Every structure is written in structure tokens, then in C-alpha cells.
């Protein structure tokens, strides 16, 4: 996950630790739901050119370590992941529709992980054209 990535305008290494909970902290994520949840999260991340470093599911919350393009933004990525997982999981698993108006709470926790090393900054500066 220490990989430095780039798009047309930006060279970056943005890794975030994200945690979100089920509505009312209900313990509804079992093994089959967890497996399907992981597939959906990976699909969304591939579509958005984000890279999953680690994904852990618990009965009442999810923890995701992910690298994403700063132009996309972590807020948009998390919003898309939560939206897609809620829609698809509630369609595929009817047990998630009973006693839960939505699958996830509106809030989530996010923190940055690591930071740029001095060598990475020097490498970036050295690679820039001098015009």
C-alpha cells in the first residue's frame, strides 16, 4: 500500500482507514453477507480506480483500508460503497429488510494512514519538468 500512484495531474499516495456501522448497530452481517459485501466493495473500488488494502467485516460494522485518488475524494468513494452495498445486499438478502429501514448509519469514521516520506517528495520534485 506504499505504492505511489498517479493520474494525469496528480502524483499521490492517499490511504484511508474507514469504518461504518449497521443501522442501530444490529449484528446482521453473517458469513454469506460478508462474502458478498466484499465482492461489491471490490467492484466499486475497481470502477473508481481505488485500491483495497484491507477489508474486515464484523457483525455490526465494516473496516476498510483503501487508497483513492484525491480528485475522487474519500467522501464520494465511501458514499458510493455504502449506497451500492446497501442496495444490492438488501435486494439479495431479504433478512436485511426486516427491522432495518436502511442497512447503514449515515455517519462513518475516516482517518489518514501514514504519510509521504521525504524520499517520495524528493522523487516527485526530481521528476517534474523545469519549464
From TrEMBL:
It comes from the Bacteria. One of its GO terms (biological process) is DNA transposition. InterPro entries: Transposase_17, Transposase_17_sf. GO terms for molecular function: DNA binding; transposase activity. This is IS200/IS605 family transposase. SMART domains: Y1_Tnp. Residues 11-128 form the Transposase IS200-like domain. It holds the Pfam family Y1_Tnp. Coiled coil: none annotated. The gene is tnpA.
